[in-house]
Amino acid sequence: MSTVFITLGLLFLSLLIIVPLVEKFGKKRSDEEARSLSRFLLPLLALLLVLQIIAYYFF
After folding, report:
1. Would you give the end-to-end CA distance of the chain in angstroms?
2. Per-residue CA distances from 43 to 6, 32, 49, 50 (Å)
3. Half-sphere exposure of 12 (CA within 13 A, CB side)
4. What does the alpha-carbon distance between residue 3 and residue 24 come to, in Å, rounded to a whole number?
5. How far apart are CA 49 and CA 53, in angstroms?
6. I need a labelling partner for 8 at 20 to 30 A (CA). Which of 14, 15, 18, 26 fits?
7. Domain count, the chain
8. Can you give the pTM of this predicted structure?
9. For the purposes of burial, counting CB atoms within 10 Å of the CB of 10, is it exposed (0-12), middle (13-18) or buried (19 or more)?
């Protein structure tokens, strides 16, 4: 059980370090670029869901 807490702690710590770095040094995107990227988000999530269901039931 302690392994789970160690893993969760490391993930949380890495988020605290990585997110501010990405926000500070990441490329700024225009609204048009963000819109074009968000257009693909829902279809990709739906595809992921379908593939996970197939993997769960058939593999």
Report:
1. 28
2. 35, 19, 10, 11
3. 6
4. 32
5. 6
6. 26
7. 1
8. 0.53
9. exposed
**Sign for the pseudo-dihedral over CA of 46, 48, 53, 58:** positive
SS (H, E, C) the chain: CHHHHHHHHHHHHHHHHHHHHHHHHCCCCCHHHHHHHHCCHHHHHHHHHHHHHHHHHHC
| pLDDT tens-digit readout, 7-49 | 999 999 999 999 999 999 988 888 898 888 889 999 999 999 9
Q: Which residue has the tokens 């926000």?
A: 23
The structure tokens listed for 20 are 């501010």
